[in-house]
Amino acid sequence: MSSTNRKLFTAEYFLVYLPPVAMETLTSFENYEDEFVPSSLTDDQTHRSTGRHTWFTSTAEQDYDSDPEYWSNNEDVSLVDHADTTSGRASENLQSSKQKFGRQEKLRMIAMRRHIDFLSEKLMDKEDSVAEIRYELEKCRTKIEMLEYERNHVFDQIEGCEAEGNMANVYRLQSKHEKLCLELEAEENLEKKITVGLDKAELELAEIELEQGKYLLIEDDLKNQEEKVEMDRTEQAIKRVKKEKLQIQLAEKRRKNSEMDHIAALKEKDRKCHQAMTAAKRSREVANKYLKDTLQRVKQAEEAEEEKARSHMDKRMNTLLKLRTDIAANRENIKAIQARDNFLKQKVLVQESKDHEEILSAGGNAKALMLRKNRLEEFEQTQQQYEAEQKQKQVQLVAEILREEQQMKKRQTMYPQLWPDLKREPSRIATTKPSKKSLAKSQSSRGSSVFTVAKENIEAGSLASDGSEASEQSFDEEELAKRKKKMTGHRGYSDSDEFEESEDESLAKPEFDGLWNQEHRAYKVPKDGEQSYTLNYPGKMEKEMMQQALNKHKAGIVKKQIAAGKEFKGCPFYSKPDVIHFKDFDVLKSYKKKVILTNVSYSVNFLKLLSLSEHLKDFIEIMFDPPGQMSAGMSCEMLVTFKPMINEDLIGKVSFLAQTGPFSVPVKCTTKKCNLSVDKTCIDFGCQVIGEKLRRTFTLTNKGAKGTTFQFLKISGLRQTLTSAGTSLGGFTVTERSPPGDRGNILDEQLKHQTSAPGSVSVSRAGDAQAKTPDKNEKDVSVQEPAGLIVSNEMSAKSNKSLVFTEQNGKRLEHVEETEVTFAESDLLEFKDIDGMGVGEIVEGVLGPFASIKLEIVFSPTIPGKVDTDFEIRFNDEDSSPISVKSVATAIDVPVWVERENVDLKICMFDRLYQDAIVVNNRAKTALRLKFEVCKELQNHLELLPKTGYIQAQSQFSAQIKFLPRRSIFEEAGEYFDQETGVLEAPMTIRVADQTSPVHFTVHAVVTNSDFELKPNDIDFGFCTIFESVIAKVKLTNKSILSHKFGFVNLPDYVDVQPNDGFGTLLPLETIELDVIFKAKKAKDYSFELTCKSGINRDFKIKCKAVGVHPPLELSHSVIHFAATALGDSSTATLSVINSHTSANEFTHPVPRIGKGSIAPVGPTSFEFIIPENVPLEISPVVGTINPGSKQQVCVRFKPKVTDAEIRNEAVRMITKSLEAQAQKELEEAKLLAQKNASETNEDEDQKLKGKKPVKKVGVKSPNNKGRGGRAGSGVLISVPKAVTPPSPDDIQSSSDDYSSARGSLYRQFINSFSSYSIPCFVATGTPVDPGSLPYSVHNTLYMEVHCPTIKPPVVVISNSGRTVVEFDDVSIGQRIIKSVTIQNISNVVQDLKSSVLDTCGPFLLLNSMRGLAPDATHTLLIAFSPMQAKVYYEVLSIKCATSTLGVSLNGQGVQPLVSTSLKDGVLDMGYVIVGEDTTETFKIENTSSLSVDYCIRLDSLSLNRHVNEQVLPSFIRKSNNVVGTANLTGRNVFDCVPSEGTLKPGTEQEIAVNFSPDHTSNYFSDCARIELYGKHEAHSICLKGQAYPHTMYVTGGDDIDTAVESLAVVPQLEEEEDNSKNPVVPTIPMLLMFHAICKEDTTLPARRDIQVGCIRSNAVSQKKNGEFFFDQLNLVTPKGFQVDIQKGMVEAGQSKAISITWTPPKGHDPNITIDGTMYLNLKGDVAEKYEIILRALVVSE
Predict the structure, then answer these.
(1) What is the pLDDT of residue 1205?
(2) Is 1043 helix (H, G, I), strand (E, B) or coil?
């Protein structure tokens, strides 16, 4: 079969045998083929992928476990370029013998491999599950066998016990047998279930094996194909490796070439560096010539500056001395004044006390008189103060009135147009008629300013008027007063004095007397000859009759109109026109209109003219002839004539009466009005070059019949100034600008108000007051604010005085301000110059009715940018609001401009070249010629290149600036250079051809020097050992205002400069301190120089010298760095002192010596550490001797703490503060008590004055008493607390709470500190014998530097006054004492606390765990102490945090507790008790130890372990330790101990009562009472016993014939048959007595048994107290040798009697035979009882 056919067969075979899951997987592969396409899959990868099942779920995401290199969008993946891949494919195509696999085939292979692996894994899972089920089945069967065996065994045991008669075991084994049967049945059911599961699992396994068998052949074919794919992949990989190696070779070659290029570049760089260094050396040689002169000049300048500073400091010192002298003098003066005041106060107090005593001696009420006197004095002072204030206010008022008059005069001269001359226009006042509209507006005007203005205008003889039209009005005094009162209430003025003063004055004189002011005059009939007429007024009856007639007449006139059954509703007549409208009328002209009325009702109708509106009768005349009856559709005419007399709108109606009802025709008369509008509200100029002028026009149209004047203004950028409104009451303020529309509305309302109101203030506009000067932009606009003040925008070129009125808290204040306002002519045009916008030639004018005019806006920009300007057209018509117009434009600059007008070269140094570039831009469309110029003064230092150039159209040109400052710039620069600050400002000019205005820019720079200063110039380090370093301080100063880098170079290896290794940057004029560290390498003399080089390659040198010392000893560590240690904590470090001097040969090794001096001898060398005072360090050992070649270990301990003096001082401070607080509290209490006593005294005195007897109060002292009342005899309260005497610090005990609290306070206040201590170690040769006997050299001294950082303890103890010792004192063994220790986190961070582990076998125990503590949080540690032995215990609990450890000491002592009882043998027998009753016995326990003991009595019957202890064989089978006997059937305790727990103090005893309460008959009641100490230690155990019997008589002493264990089950009692005989049979109670006679050699000892017959004391009253007994049938047992000593007797209640029974073997008795006998014992108590005593005797050997 060919490869093609085989491929097709394989594909079809795959498709046929692929299961549905695999088909879904294949489908998912095809869907994702554009994302992931696998190329191959190895066997190992296949096995690794068998654990993934996500391939076979259509909804799951595809998951691939193979190598990412196997997946690609192409069939082959290569690491080389595309060309190599193409060539490789061409070569592969030549191999036709090899088989190629396509994408779909590979996908199917992957899917099949996945499916086969899935089946294999599933098969393995099923095999495992089958194996598990089989294993479970086997276990189940094994258990069934075991249960069957055990069941059979139990059954055999049951049979055996039944044969033996052991029924107890039979019942137990039967229950066990039933249990086994149940378990066996459950196991058999489980076996069936497991079998069913096994069958099912085996079925599934067989199905999977069958399914897997279908793919055996396919799997073999699949393996072959996968091997071929892997071979192809291997070949491709080999080819790729070859190509990659080739690429690596090429890359290596390129790398070598780049390295060669880099080496060449480095050589070139070295050459340039060498060349630059040569040039720098030459420049330095040249600069050295001028260095000396420069340094000399600098030194002179410094000396001059120092001299200047010195003189300035002397002046300051003299000033300060003078100031101190003045302060001292003033202080003395102040002290003298204070002393005088105190003396006067004391004198007054003494005088008051004398007066008080005199009044008291006279028998008067001193307090009342003194109070009156004080109040009179206060009243006089208040009155004097009030009069002074009134006078001052009057003076101020007069001054303000005078200022106001002067201001009015000045204003009258400045604004004469506001005060028209009445002599010139006398007719205007007399002829003008009042208008109702103006009257109404006058009545509604606000504020009191109107009346004041009218008053001032009348006094001046003029009325305020507008420029174009004025309306004057006058009122009589009565009406004015009414209005004034009304407006005063409206405005809310509280100050009524001003209005009261002006009530009597006439504020305005009316032009004519109105009807409202005329008195009523009676009507007089004119005389006509001699005739006279009299008016007869109708009476009441006549009026009623007339009214009835009128109503009847009206009812007859109006009728309903019904036609064709339909009633007419609505207006019966139609008017044409609907409204009689007289539009745009003129006063004193006549107008006529004809009105046609048409009958629109259903039938004939009548029409009658009733009336005309009252306010129209004076102006309108109607001509109307009643037409009579009018049919429907007929019309009639009416002529209406209108002759207006006033210029106001009139609205009314003409009323008619028709047959169907009244109706009316409206009448409307309107005056001429303006209807103003513009055609454009926004004008856009577009872009405009600076310097050009552009005009735009728009049209203003008046569509109304009334003409008006207008004013065209620019409102953007108006200045806000302070001005008056033209009257003395004009308020002034300055507010923010409002939008144009709002401003127009406000202005319009204000203008209406001011022009219509009589006597109001008029606003002067540029168009009215100064129409002849149109170029003057003077504006005066006043806006009435809600608060009654006026906001003004005014521009004035004059200086004036302004009278300013303001309102504060409802009061009116006035003052005169002298303001000097001067505006130049350029200021008036400043707004236009800013943005370039302005109005055209027409600024103001008159706009007639139905006319229009063109207005112009001019744009001439001077500054580039966007312009947005608002204009406004204002009108004098009160009904027309201003119109706003907005103009928008963009201004662009001249063609040539520079990007930077200020070129900042920053800070420059002398003799160094600095360059920058200036970019010139050309926005024109042609090329321009440029010329660069520099001022003459700076031509030697500043240069512009090139001098001349051409800039192309719409391009840029770059010029270079070169700045080389020289020292001569101080003399040559002139005004462009500031010698003090070094600032240079150089103006530069660029001249452009054909452009008049040049382009300017400025070059800025700050010139400074580059000098360093080193102090000192010479350093002597002195003697320095080779084990230490010597530091010298050097100050390095930068004399330049430019930061410079510096560095100390070429330093010897024994010298170091810090910080930063001697390198850094100096800020301008900065001085820093450097540490020069010298460390000698060996003992010799040193001399060297240090070189400091600046960043610009300048050198500054320092000369140094030192002497090196090699001491005989050395320290292993010269510096010890302790960790941050908290107060109260400690840190430890160790070091060694070494003697390495073993040979004096200086040629083999360095030897100890000082410089070049003699060598130290070889031998023992001693050392001593000297610790300075108050240093918290401990060194051990301090002194020692070390032999050559050995060393000594030294321990250094750092333990920071607070000194004792500081603690004592803090304790004194805290105690003093507490005492002061207590004294202050006592003072306040004394004051309160004194006030209370004083108030009670005043009440008593008041009652005395009223004639009443004062009421005495118990417990309250009189205020006259001296003492605790808080008031002395003079009546002066104590105002100072009593003096506090602080304790002495020496009196503070270290064990007191104050001492501990003070230490805790210091811990909290402690601030972290760092201390560094230098501990000297003196060295001497030899062994010390006497102190000071060894010679030593100071130069050989070793120094140990210890760095000790001390921090505030993060955690402190706050309980027990901050003590860190917990004392448990004496504690009994077994007792557990718990004490708490509270700690607090006093740091600012959260502390994670941990504690040390206490001794696990010790008595101390930490009960709660540590936790993280937040800042200021607290945590309480609970520590328990329970000693196990009698000894002293001590342990330290360490509380650890991140930075410190807090140690808490735990101390305690264990003591053995001793408790004894009054019971000797430990048994308490309660005796016999009648069932249902109880009895009580007592015993005592005593504490014989020295500690209090906590005891607890526990009964075994109440123990939790009782059930466990009873799981043993009964006592009759096997002896056990269980002493708990029979329990009550009711569940109640048989025994009870009271009290069951308590505390025994040392040497005390406690009586314990034991209560015995049985509820049934038994002889086996018992329990054990255990006395436990502290709940742990058992001191004693007491056995409690008792018997219960149902009757009073009982017998004891027999042998046991039953078990001692009773069952709690209730035994049912058989009902006895009733015995009807007279002598009922008493049942007998068996009792066994065993006698054992001991047989000796020749004799036999008799056997004796004792029985007790007792009588129980009963609580029942009815029962018999005593009992009797007697024996029967003694004759039967006497022959057998039995003898009873007491055969009959009586027993007292609560007593028992012993009866002895003796058995003596009779003669001839066979010892091997047992003798049995029976006798009866009869008891008579509450009932009669009979005991059958069975006697059994036998002889036993000894």
Answers:
(1) 87
(2) coil
What number of residues does the chain have? Answer: 1742
Residue 362 has pLDDT above 50, yes or no: yes
Which DSSP category does 1286 fall into? P
| Partners of residue 1652 on adjacent β-strands | 1596, 1698
pLDDT in tens, 1493-1540: 888 988 888 877 766 666 665 655 555 556 787 888 888 888 999 998
Count other C-beta atoms under 10 Å from residue 1125's C-beta: 21
Tokens of 1256: 């005495």
Between CA 589 and CA 92 the distance in angstroms is: 120
CA distance linking residue 1192 with residue 1168, whole number of Å: 12
Share of the chain above pLDDT 90, in %: 20
Residue 694, helix vs strand vs coil: strand
- How many beta carbons lie within 10 A of that of residue 1025, not counting itself? 24
Give pairs for 7-15: CB < 8 Å, separation 24+. Answer: 7/99, 7/105, 10/105, 10/221, 10/225, 11/104, 11/105, 11/108, 13/218, 13/221, 14/108, 14/112, 14/218, 15/108
Task: Tell whether the model's pLDDT for residue 537 goes beyond 80.
Answer: no
Q: Residue 491: CA atoms inside 13 Å, Cβ hemisphere, count?
A: 27
Percentage of residues of the chain with pLDDT beyond 70? 75
CA torsion angle for 919, 922, 926, 929 (degrees, to 10)? -40
Token pair in block for residue 281: 């050396």
Is the bond preceding residue 1711 a cis peptide, omega within 30 degrees?
Answer: no
pLDDT of residue 733: 34
Integer CA distances (angstroms), 1680 to 676, 1675, 1738, in order: 163, 9, 11
Helix (H, G, I), strand (E, B) or coil at 1375: coil
d(CA 926, CA 948): 17
At residue 749 the predicted structure's pLDDT band, cuts being 50, 70 and 90, is very low
Q: What is the tens place of the pLDDT at every residue in 587-632?
A: 888 999 999 999 998 888 888 888 899 888 889 999 998 888 888 8
The token pair at 1735 is 């006697």
Answer whether residue 1588 shows pLDDT above 70. Answer: yes
Of 167-181, 422-436, 1073-1087, give the range with the top mean pLDDT.
1073-1087
Single pTM value for the model = 0.38
CA distance 485 to 473: 19
For residue range 887-924, list pLDDT tens digits in order.
999 887 778 888 888 999 988 988 889 999 999 988 88
From the number of C-beta atoms within 10 Å of its C-beta (0-12, 13-18, 19+), residue 609 rates as middle
CA separation, residue 1596 to residues 182, 619, 863, 1361 (Å)? 50, 150, 139, 70
Terminal-residue alpha carbon distance, the chain: 120
Residue type at 1533 in one-letter notation? N
Measured in whole angstroms, the distance separating CA 1351 from the mean position of its chain's CA atoms is 29
DSSP-derived 3-state class of residue 1618: coil
List of E strands, 1386-1443: 1394-1395, 1404-1406, 1418-1425, 1432-1440
User: How do strand 1445-1455 and strand 1365-1372 relate by DSSP bridges?
Assistant: parallel
Q: What is the DSSP string of 36-99?
A: --B----HHHHHHGGG--GGG-TTSPP---S-GGGB-SSSS--SS-HHHHHHHHHHHHH-TTS-
Conformation bin of residue 1127: beta by default, left when phi > 0, alpha when psi is -120 to 50:
beta
Give the C-alpha separation, 1016 to 1000, whole Å: 51
Say how far apart CA 843 and CA 772 lie, in whole Å.
Answer: 11
1591 and 1474 Cβ atoms separated by less than 8 Å: yes
Using one digit for the tens of pLDDT, what is the confidence trace for 233-287?
898 899 999 999 999 999 999 999 999 999 999 999 999 999 999 998 888 888 8
Tokens 């103060």 appear where?
385
CB 1651 within 8 A of CB 1598: yes
Write the burial class of residue 183 (CB in 10 Å: 0-12 exposed, 13-18 middle, 19+ buried): middle
